[in-house]
Amino acid sequence: MPGHDIIVIGASAGGVEALREIIKGLPADIPAAVFVVLHLPSDATSVLPSILERAGQLPAHHPKDREAIESGRIYVAKPDCHLLIKRGYVRLVRGPKENSARPAVDPLFRTAARYYSNRVVGVVLSGALDDGTSGLIAIKSRGGIAVVQEPDDALYSGMPRSALENTEVDYCLPASDIAALLTRLANEQVEWEEGQTMNDDMEKELDTAEFDLEAIKDNDRPGVPSRYTCPECHGVLFEIDEESLLRFRCRVGHAYSAETLLSEQSEALEAALWAALRSLEENVALTKRLAHRMRERGNLRSAKRFDNNAENLEHRVGLIRKVLIGQPVTERPQADESRNSESSEVAEEAT
Which of 4, 39, 82, 254 is catalytic? Predict the structure, then answer.
């Protein structure tokens, strides 16, 4: 019988040190294959395989698409590609981003659970937000083992803490103790049932992650339509209630946890505020220029009107600046009176 011979590890910010600590403690003859996803920018150059090789005794590399899985090797996701596990080999796909990341942790975890069920050990390490939680839920649903770095031991506790709050975790340990656990589990025999299948919604999500066109065109989507739109493509997001974790996925496959969606919306709001600030400042400059021209021509009433407009615009600029730097915002009480005064002057000039 096999052991827990499929070890999948997910990390983000602060995860390199934890990965080095774990790989350092794995023996050269461990009867398991290790798969690692570290969130990276799409245009980054990854040297993680060489870092992990220097840290321990196992060879590490970026695999090729459809490369066979072998024990005693570390397969590291390369930038801008999801690393997925199939029966006996790996896939590299440029499928939809998940939690705004490619490679992402959850697709690796879910595909491992799909094909190797209770032979899988999922490990969530340091990182912000809640990546990896949904993948751990999938691993647990298939009888696999969930391991989480102790949040106080992680440089960024978001990912470990989310996993602990939303998943029935089997082990919560500091990074220095995880290698010994993985070695023991890899040598522990498992009664594996190859014929197990996942629920229909999970199967559809996995097909979407692999950019399966039939799955993307299928109108029977996992979840129910929500009132929110996808930050990436602006399509409708479907709401998926997964145990205690709320997730969203759009028609073409972009996926978000609720926490990541909130973060993306906050970034979009900030970008919109900066754009509004730029437009208002340009409007202020133009309005002041028009006021100056009116004064030069002796048209003092129009100059005063433009001055009042500029004053109101500058007040709005100040409000947006306070929002952007996190200061309390209070509207001036005389704003309505200024607008009424301005309207009266315009009416008077028109007559």
Answer: 39
Q: Residues with Cβ < 8 Å from 214, sequence gap 6 or more?
A: 207
Catalytic: which of 5, 106, 130, 131?
A: 131
Regarding whether 118 and 33 lie in a shared domain, the answer is: yes
The answer to whether position 208 is within a domain reads no
Q: How far is CA 148 from the centre of its chain?
A: 18
Number of domains in the chain: 3
Helix (H, G, I), strand (E, B) or coil at 286: helix
Strand-pairing partners, residue 181, are none
Query: Is 12 an annotated catalytic residue?
Result: yes
* Residue range 229-248, pLDDT digits in tens: 998 888 999 998 877 788 89
Q: Are residues 140 and 52 in the same domain?
A: yes
Judge whether 338 counts as a catalytic residue. no
Does the predicted TM-score (pTM) go above 0.70? yes
Q: Which domain holds residue 319?
A: 261-350
More confident site: 94 or 330: 94
Check whether residue 172 and residue 83 sit in a common domain.
Answer: yes
